[in-house]
Structure formats: C-alpha cells, structure tokens
C-alpha cells in the first residue's frame, strides 16, 4: 500500500490521477461543433418551421449563421431523388434560412415537363395548410408537406448516368446489338 502513495512517477496512483485529469480536461472544454445525430441539418430545418426531408440523406456537413441566416449544405456529391418530380441536388446547396422559408436557393433543381428548372425559394406559409410552395422562377408549385417528412435517399449522379446509357441502348434497338 505504501507504494500507491509514494508519488513515484510510475506508480499506479500517479497514472490514475493522470487519466482522471485528461478525462476532466476533455469533457470540461467545449468540443468543436459538427452535425451529429442530435444536431442534424434535418433537425435544424424542423426547428425553423420546415420539413426535415427537404434535404436528402448523405449530408456530409453544413454551416449555418444565426446572424444572417446563411446556410450551406455539403452533400457527398451531386445526386438525384424524387418527391413528386425528380429533384437534382448539386454537391453544395446554399440558401438563406428563416422561419418557414429557404430563400435564394442555389444548387437545387426540379424537373418540370422535361425541363430542369432551378428552385429559387421554398416556403411554408401556413403549416396547418399541409402545403409547401416551391418557387421555380417561371411558376410556383404547391406540394403536400407529407412528401418531405423524411429525408429521401439520393442516388449519385454516376448511378443515374449509367441508367441513362442503358436506356439509350434500348432505344436504339438493332444498333445496340452491333
């Protein structure tokens, strides 16, 4: 027992104190913030009156400024998903986030009548209406909020390009057999 209290630098008591000091230091100082399960982009959207499923799964990181509402979301890469129509997300999506709206959206397009149109604003005026408004420049489109309840899976653009090549082969008929 006298060995534990001697203060010798290699004693078990000194080692225990060192571990305790490291543990206290790690949990006393604030850790750098990063999105986690408790603090995800989807939770941030919900806390601002928007559905959490506006952005897909696979968000690598995001930054948000409470001061001016600037939001920048980084995805694993460009990808496609489907709500009511096909939607294309670039690798980085930017917008101004205020309660109930994403305005000045950059990096998000929606397919309408075979055209890809940039989404400019996304607005939930009245959550009780069950509707969400998408401003696609030339028109406004209302959709059901329920479509955006859960974050969708988003297929990488490479996966869709492979499907497109196979689709073109099928359309060429006999030429594809050569």
From TrEMBL:
<feature type="signal peptide">
    <location>
        <begin position="1"/>
        <end position="35"/>
    </location>
</feature>
<dbReference type="InterPro" id="IPR007493">
    <property type="entry name" value="DUF538"/>
</dbReference>
<keyword id="KW-0732">Signal</keyword>
<dbReference type="InterPro" id="IPR036758">
    <property type="entry name" value="At5g01610-like"/>
</dbReference>
<dbReference type="Pfam" id="PF04398">
    <property type="entry name" value="DUF538"/>
</dbReference>
<protein>
    <recommendedName>
        <fullName>DUF538 domain-containing protein</fullName>
    </recommendedName>
</protein>
């Amino acid at each position: 027992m006298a060995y534990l209290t001697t203060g010798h630098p290699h004693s078990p008591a000194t080692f225990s104190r060192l571990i305790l000091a490291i543990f206290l230091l790690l949990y006393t100082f604030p850790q750098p913030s990063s999105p986690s399960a408790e603090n995800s982009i989807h939770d941030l959207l919900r806390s601002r009156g928007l559905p959490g499923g506006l952005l897909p799964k696979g968000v690598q990181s995001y930054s948000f400024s409470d001061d001016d509402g600037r939001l920048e979301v980084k995805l694993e890469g460009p990808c496609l998903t489907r709500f009511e129509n096909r939607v294309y997300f670039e690798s980085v999506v930017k917008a101004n986030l205020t309660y109930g709206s994403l305005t000045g959206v950059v990096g998000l397009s929606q397919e309408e009548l075979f055209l890809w149109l940039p989404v400019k604003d996304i607005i939930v005026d009245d959550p009780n209406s069950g509707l969400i408004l998408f401003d696609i420049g030339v028109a406004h489109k209302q959709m059901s909020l329920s479509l955006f309840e859960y974050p969708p899976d988003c297929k990488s653009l490479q996966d869709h390009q492979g499907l497109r090549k196979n689709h073109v082969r099928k359309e060429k008929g006999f030429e594809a057999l050569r």
